[in-house]
Specification:
alpha+beta, single chain, six-stranded mixed β-sheet, binds protoporphyrin IX containing FE
């Protein structure tokens, strides 16, 4: 009897284990084997089971976007990174459609906790809430405050005096010391200019970056947002419950503390100014606070505090980078430089109406540089709810958890939208007014979440360029600079620049 019951037990045991194993294998196969998740859409295939994970981990998101856009297809392609689907959408119409999706269907950050590769989820943990990651009714209020402060002609006219003053001080420092100066890494210099401008404009403190704390903190945030590793590490920690989904890790909290220290210090300096001289012209940070419920004195609004955190990460990079690319392209194209000099040689860079109405060629040059070198070269949306996207052949169904990449750089470089010379610097294309309306031109994105600060940035860049080119001749020392597509678009190596005062006067520039 004993023998027979043992045999029966063993039999049931083996059957149960085999059934469980078979189920586990079936589940794994269902989970891991390549499936046609987007029927009719071309797939960039990688290695079995992992998909393009090796490429993603070794080279990061930008490389994956590049590979996905080269797959081509009907303006849409996709790849699997293990069990996550990355979709690239690359026609103007489809990009605009995705950017216009309601936020319940697609947002920048998606859900915390689950494997989520969105750089905005990392940004949220590093700097806390900002307009980038807000959804819901607050968005419209915040966008209005930003637009009033940074994208309105009136506000920028008021900011112009500060911009001109900071530009003049910066360019004078660069050019005053000797007849000719060589600067080994000009981006550091333009970053310093942009940081001084933000410091002065927001807090009345042009030297807030001089302790060398702001730039490294900001660079680290930019780097972490573009790298896949923080997301992987975070998902692992969330899985073993060492972090609460949405909350920063220990390292991230540390960096966030450093951001907080910079912000606190800036606010203290502004409050000190206000106490010392109550009649002081209201600084932009106080105005932003007043636009969002704060008083003329006393505590700053939550929105102002959030903007201050965001500004540590994003205030200077795009301004500095654009100026560097402008100098590279003008150095490569002496004819364009000569045309530009004819237009700007005698204008008064301290008079805003000259810069906003009488510089069509300068505007064309700037737009062409925005086209060839969009600092924000791509963005991302996480699908939250099943959503249909029309393609030229047949609609596709985007499923929750999919990550949709939108490559602005790809649009800007496409011969389909810009003609055979798409890869070349031809500012003249922007002399035709319809060029800025080209649906494939979106350096500041498009739709309900497009950039709310581009007019301020463009104005600062223009004042800087005019002042610099009027003061000295600029020569980019080493040629052949290439694009490096990181979190943001950068130069592959530092750009050395020679500034010569004598030449600016004698060479007829
Ligand atoms: C050359 C300079 C700039 C470039 C190329 C640029 C580019 C962009 C792009 C492409 C987006 C949309 C990203 C997306 O859809 O995910 C964006 C959004 C945004 N930008 Fe800019 N930007 C610049 C300057 C500025 C400045 C000076 C400010 C500061 C006020 C600013 C504040 C913002 C904010 C807050 C958003 C988010 C808007 C929202 O979610 O509603 N930007 N920018």
């Amino acid at each position: 009897m004993l023998t027979s019951s043992t045999a029966t037990g063993t039999f049931f045991g083996i059957t149960a284990i085999s059934t469980l194993l078979a189920l586990a294998i079936l589940l794994c196969l269902k989970f891991l084997l390549p499936r046609d998740v987007l029927p009719g859409v071309l797939q960039l295939r990688g290695v079995p089971l992992l998909g393009i994970m090796p490429e993603y981990l070794s080279q990061g998101m930008p490389r994956v976007i590049e590979s996905l856009t080269t797959v081509g297809g009907d303006g849409i392609s996709y790849a699997k990174v293990f069990n996550v689907t990355l979709v690239s959408v690359h026609t103007p119409a489809m990009i605009k459609a995705v950017l216009a999706f309601p936020e319940e269907n697609a947002s920048r950050k998606g859900r915390p906790g689950s494997m989520n590769w969105s750089p905005f989820q990392t940004l949220l943990r590093l700097i806390g809430k900002s307009l980038f990651t807000y959804t819901g009714t607050e968005v419209n209020h915040q966008r209005l405050a930003y637009t009033q402060e940074f994208n309105s002609g009136k506000a920028n006219a008021a900011a112009f005096k500060t911009i001109a003053r900071i530009v003049t001080a910066h360019v004078d420092t660069l050019t005053n010391s000797a007849a000719s100066t060589e600067i080994a890494n000009f981006k550091l210099s333009t970053d310093a200019f942009a940081l001084a401008l933000w410091g002065e404009h927001l807090y009345g403190n042009a030297s807030h970056h001089l302790d060398r704390q702001v730039l490294p903190v900001s660079e680290r945030i930019v780097h972490l947002c573009g790298s896949p590793w923080p997301s992987i590490w975070y998902s692992f920690l969330a899985l073993i419950r060492l972090v609460t989904p949405g909350k920063p890790t220990w390292d991230e909290a540390n960096l966030r503390c450093q951001v907080g220290e910079i912000v606190d210090r800036n606010f203290k300096i502004l409050e000190q100014h206000e106490r010392n001289d109550p009649a002081l012209e209201i600084k932009a940070m106080r105005r932003i606070s007043m636009l969002s419920g704060g008083g003329r004195t006393g505590p700053f609004s939550q929105f102002a505090v959030e903007f201050a955190h965001l500004n540590v990460f994003g205030g200077h990079h795009s301004i500095g980078s654009l100026i560097v690319w402008l100098l590279i392209e003008l150095d490569r194209h002496p004819d364009s430089l000569a045309t530009l000099m004819t237009e700007i040689r005698d204008i008064d860079p301290t008079n805003i109406s000259f810069l906003t109405t009488k510089t069509p060629y300068l505007d064309a040059v700037l737009n062409e540089v925005h086209r060839l070198y969009p600092t924000v070269h791509a963005t991302v949306r996480v699908i939250n709810r099943e959503t249909r996207l029309a393609t030229s052949k047949t609609p596709v169904t985007l499923k929750p958890g999919m990550l949709v990449y939108l490559s602005i750089l790809h649009l800007h470089m496409s011969t389909d939208y810009w003609g055979a010379d798409a890869a070349h610097f031809v500012p003249e294309r922007f002399l035709k007014p319809e060029a800025t309306k080209n649906p494939a031109f979106m350096p500041f994105s498009s739709g309900p979440r497009s950039c709310v600060g581009y007019k301020f940035a463009n104005l600062a860049i223009k004042v800087y360029l005019v002042r610099l080119l009027q003061s000295c001749a600029v020569q980019v020392v080493d040629h052949g600079h290439k694009v490096k597509i990181d979190t943001l678009l950068e130069t592959e190596r530092p750009v050395a620049v020679r500034l010569s005062k004598a030449c600016a006067q004698d060479c007829g520039h």
